[in-house]
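In the lab's daily routine, each protein ends up as an entry in a very long ledger. A line of letters takes care of the sequence, but it says nothing directly about the fold. The three-dimensional part falls to structure tokens, numbers that each stand for a local backbone shape. The outcome of that step, for a single protein, is printed below.
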Amino acid sequence: MRSFFLSTNYVKTAWRNLVRNKVYTTINIAGLSIGLACCMLIILFINDEVSFDRFHKNADNIYRVVHRDTGPNGELQGTNGITGMMPGPTFKREIPEITEYVRVSGDMLSVKIGTEIFEQEALYVDDNFFSVFTFPPKYGSKKDALKDMFSVVLSEQVAKKFFGKADAVGKTLELPKRQDHDSPEQKKFETFVVTAV
């Protein structure tokens, strides 16, 4: 009973001091709140950075080649993951420690399904993509998903967008020929088969 009385006494005394010094209290509480918020944001940012793509089986051995753009005076103007098609094969040939390479190239494509044409962001990847990255397929098998040049793998969201259901394995869609830059109405399309989702 005595300890409870003493603790409530401390709370009352602290409250009186806080009310008596309103400006000082406001500054302290605002500073504490801002400091805690900044710490939490930094912790969340660091957690996101160190956990990025950590679900891959070989995450510790996967590296991304980054291209650095420098100006005429040598100043850094920016970095990006676009390196071209040659570094992968060249690095594997020249550096014995490299066991695999995967080239990834993004593009916005016109996708034709029946008579409808959709604009969709897409990636071109090497056929060993699923042996390096362990994205689990929901439908289909990743083992032979990209062995054929005319095969395509869709995300579940894109499969639902195009076919109205997630399991689109075996369905076909048409993509423009790789070097074709005409308008969607003039493009020449080729048929691709969905091999995994």
